[in-house]
Each structure stands twice: as structure tokens, then as C-alpha cells.
Amino acid sequence: MTTARENSLVGCHHCNLIVAVGPDDIGLAPKIMCPRCSSVLHQRKPNSIARSWALLIAAVILYIPANTIPIMTVTSFGEGSPDTIMSGVIHLLEADQIPIAALVFFASIVVPIFKIVMISMILISVQFKSGWRAKDRTLIYRLTEVVGRWSMIDIFMISILVGLVKLGNIATIEVGFGAVAFAAVVVLTMFSATYFDPRLIWDHAQSNELMED
Amino acid sequence: MSDFQNGTPSVAVKSGPRFSVVWLLPVIAALLGIWLLVDTILKQGPEITISFKSAEGLEAGKTKIKFRDVEIGKVIEIIIKKDLSGIIVVAELQKDTESHLTEETKFWVVKPRLDARGISGLGTIVSGAFIAIEPTSKGSATKSFIGLETPPVIKIDAAGKEFILTTTKLGSYGIGSPVLSRGIEVGEILGSELAADGKNIEVHVFVKAPHDKLVKENTRFWDVSGINISLDADGMQIRTASLTSLFIGGIAFETPPKIGDAPPGENLSKFVLYDNKAAIQTVSYSRKIEFISYFDNSVRGLNVGAPIEFKGIKIGTVKDVKIEFDAENTNFRIPVLYEIELDRISEIKGNIIADGAIFPILIERGLRAQLKSGNIVTGQLIVNLDFHPGSPAKYFGEGGIFSEIPTVPSTLDELTSSITDLIAKINNLPLDEIAKGLEKTLTNANRVIKSADEIINTSEAKNLVRNLDTSIKRFNSIASKVDIDMMPRLTAVIQEANETLATVKDAVSENSPLRYNLENTLEELSKAARSVRGLAEYLERNPNALISGKKAN
User: Chain B window 112-131: which residues touch A at a Cβ cutoff of 8 Å?
Assistant: First the structure.
């Protein structure tokens, strides 16, 4: 089985129109557009690996403040201390809120780390032009894309709580900079995943992987 | 392959810059991270320790340190002192607070409190206790503090003066009760504590500027708490200062007019706090010295509160009267304790009465205490101090802490004792013997008279009398003869003498010609003498005048 690129064809991302691309076209202009819907066409997402890397590195840098700086401060009857993500999980565990603790732990700790590790793994494998287990890597990539947004539940929860819990001295919730950093990490990893073109995985994998099927 | 290409349209081409800005993102993230790190390090404020007796309401990591309700720090850790006498709060303050952390800086825990000012710190019921700070730049910098158990009685930045009022019992005022001057609130009570001597209570009051100028050295403070009801001959009097002071008490002050200008009251100077305004009118002298004097005689009529007079002016009151028995001498004596109000004596130069140093000198000069009748009808006694130079100073020297002023017996005592002495002497007279002697004498006299009588009645005696009679008669006749012969001659002599004296008198009298002539002659003589002197002087200067004669000037 051959790829569209080998056949000088490009599929439009949006209207799925298959367009023929001559080698000249690519050489002449950086952007080719869909003749039907005018959206930009790529044979492969341009600069995909570099962009993914850039966003991923930004996410990794911001991951440090996201976990060390408090994401929120719950003040109730004058008492309350700022909580980081991990200390929040520990507090929930101490309060025997095991399901919620598990959810927060999964969404806010496991998923971002999983995403960062997986994207970097895929990027490295692509850069080394490895064709190793291309199908599994594609699966992982898809999983990363799907699961990534769930990390935002922490942010949504904080946003809702901050908006709702405004009871003056009785209870107040304040957002810390950690929440911003965390949201940035989630968004950056999502973008990183989006900028990555999974077709790159197959560019080097077709020979061995597909032949096996 | 070509089938595909033929059937599909060719791409549209758009040119544009191929510049990837995406790498800016990690750079921004990195810069953000570095900025956060630097910011955290820079914002690191000083770490201080505050010791408190208890950590009630304080919680590590949660309790805040606030200045004027703005959070400037947080408690990090609470440690129990090694000797278990209290706790130490470790707190981190914001940056740039170091300059306000000095020995004078005060920390206290704000929690709900109920006092005269009402309920304070109610907000902390829901907001939780916090540590308040009163920063100041005074004093040397430090990082460890001793927290106050109660809010500080004085705000460092408040302008005004603090005064200490001493009293024997605490009235119904409390922290925050008003201090009034002519009914206007000019300050507040900061707190009260037992004085160092354990006898008095010291009430700290703060008078705000500019009213603090009203407080002079002779200012009187009194308690205006509640209602003052007095019932006396004038009827019933009900007094209350203000509605506030009716409920939460208060202290009023007033500066009485004084001869001379009273200096203003210094910060932290001490005053006496009187129970009420009437108490001032009776006792308005604060500096007192206590003295003791021992009396031998009855002090019936000498009550506690009786006046001590010096030269007729009341300078003190009797504080205590007792009776003591001296087992050594088997003697009773009555110590009388009294105090002299030094302010009653105003000093013209110097200030030696005030410290009491003058009294030993005065005693040396004869200052003595004496009981004196204050009221003859009621028999009230007073203690009179006066100078009795020469009277011996008899000390008992057992007054303890009190100085002793020796006594002299009272005038009444003196009188009584001399009468007693007299009566005793009279009593001791041997009246019986005297009477017997008298009788004997009289008997003897009788006998003498009788024998004389007998002698007179004898014939010799009669003859003697007759002879005597004739002798006297003869003498009489001689005398009369002398009278008749001598008198005319004597009269003549006296008359002549009189005449001679009159002549002499005339001759020397002021208007006599003799005297007039004499005066004229003397005058002429003196003129002549003057001329001679003039001539002599002229000749002395001009000896040639003797030959050439006087030249006209």
C-alpha cells in the first residue's frame, strides 16, 4: 500500500477533498490551499516535529510551577492554607474521599505526565525514523489526544468553586498561580499533540509494519 | 497513477512567510519560570520568632500576621519552649518589613474580647485569630519578640501623654473607659496593674494631644464611675458625669488654680486618683510623710483623722492611735501615727521639705509634738507641732519604718501635773506638828503677855511711866523755844539769798545788757582777728607791702 504523498495527492483536513499536488507546487509555495473550501492543505503538517517539541518543552517547564506553586487556597473560618495539586490529593485522601482523590490524581498528575512522556517518546521515535510498532504508537497518540482534555477537569473545578464559594469569612477560595501554570501545561500538551502529524509515524513504518498485515 | 492526476484539480498556491514563532513559547515559559523563581526568592521576607504563653487560636501555616487588617506575614511553625513555659511562634513576614522590626515592636493575638469599650475582635470568631503587629522604627533591630497577652494599652503612633494614677482600690472602670476633662472625652484608660509596692493600684491613662497640655503637676484625677449619691444636711445630691461613664466608668481630671504657674505633667508621671470629687476637696495633697510620736498621757479625744497643726495651720492628719506596753520598763505608752502632707507647705527657695530631709534638722531645733485641746466643749484633741527649744528630745526609737518626732507634755498636762505636785506638797506638809508648834508658841506668848502685864502693874513700872512722861514734856518745851527763837532769823537769811540769786540771774539772762555787751565785744574781737589773719596772709605773699604799701587791685 502506498501513501498519498507517494501518489502526489493531498487530502483536505476539513472537506476531505482529495487534491493532486505536483512537486512544483510544493517547491514554489509554502502553502497550498483546498480549491473547494480554501483551507490550507498539507501533505504533512509543516514544522510538525519542531512545533510539537517547542510546545512540549514549554509544557515541561511550566509543569514545575504547576506542581510546586499552590493552585488554590481554601479559607474557611480563617483557617486554610494554599494547596498544590499533590497536597490537595493528600488532603482528599486524609478526608477519606478516595474516589475523588483518585480522579484528581489521575486527571491532574497521571494524565499530564503520561502525555508528556508519550508525546516525547513518539517525537523521539519519529526523529530517529524508527518504524517500530507504528500501530501501537498511533494508538498511544490517539489516546493522548483523547485523554488530554480530561486534565482540564481540575481547572474547571477550581473555576467553578472560585465562582461559587464567596462566603466572606466563612469560606473563600482563591486561585493560585499554580492553576494558571497547570492550565497552560494542559493546553500546551494538547496543542503539542495536535501539531504532531501522526502520518509521520507511518512514513518510516510502512515498509515493515504494513507488510506484516 | 496518471489517472488520479488527470482527474483532480491542481492546487492553488499562496505565498507567505515560513517563520516558526512556536519556539517562542518554551522561551516564554522558561522566562516565566525564572521570573517566578526570582520573585519567590526576592519576596522572601524576614523570619521572626514571637513567644506567647499559649498558642490558643494559632495554627501553623494558617494564622496570619496582620497590620491594620492587612496580611503581612504568616505563622510557619509553632514550637513549645524547652522549659514548657510557653510557645514560640515562628513566622515569616513580607519583604521590606525588617526596618519596622525593633525591640519596641509589639505583637499580640487578636481574638474576641469583651471589655469596657465593648466587644472587640468579633470578626475573628469567623475569620480565626490572627497576630497583630504594631511596627515601629524606634529601638534596635531584632528578630525575636515577646508577644503581649493583651492588646497593647497604648498605640505607638498616637500623640499625647500617658499618666499613671495611683489608687488603693480599682473602680468600676476598665480598659477603654473615657478620661474626661470638663465632661469632654480627651483620652482613655489603658489598663491597670498592681503597683510594685503591692499596696496601691496603678491605673494607666492616656490623654490625647492637644488635651494633654491640660494636665499640670497639680492636676487632680478622680473616679466618675456610676452614680454618686450623697445624703447630708444639704439634702440629697445625685451626681453622674456622663451616660457613658454611668455604664462603663471613667476618670475625670481638673487643674485647680494655684499660686504660681504649675509645670505641665510629664509623660508617665504619677498622680493620685481620688474616689470622687469631694475627696479632692478634703484631701488634695498627694505627697505625704508618715511620722510617729509616743505620748505618755491620755489621748482621750484624739481620733483617727484628727488634724496635725503646725503654727495653727493644718498640715496633716492622724492615721492611727494605739496603746503599747513596754515590758522592760513596765510602762504604757501611746504611739500616734500621723502623716504630714508636704504639699501644704509651699517652699520659696529650694525643695527640701518635699523629700522630708528637713525634719531631722527641725527636730534638732526643737520641733516637738504636743497634744492640744482642739475643742474645749467636745474635748477633741489635736496634735500640735511647734518649736520647744531646750526641751530634751526623748526618742523611743521603735517606730519601725516611721520617723519619730519627740513629744513634749501638753500644756494641760503641765498644768495638771504642777497642780498635782502642789497638792502633793501640801499633802505632805506636817500640819499636825505645825498646829502643835503653833499652839505651843501661842501658849508661850500668852505667858509672856501675862508676865508683861504683871510687870506693868508693878509700882516701878508706874514710876517709870511717870518719869518718862515728864521727860517728854520737857523735851517738848525745849523744842518750842527753839522754834520761836530761830525761825525769824532763818527766814531773813533765806530771803537775802533769794535776792542775791535773782540779781545774778538778771545779769546772765539773755536780754541782760551785760550779756549783750559781752557778745558784741566777742564779735568785734573775732572780726579783728580775721583782719589780722588777712593782713598776715597778704604780707606773707607780698612782703614788700611793708615798704611799698598795699597796691590796689
Answer: 123-124, 126-130
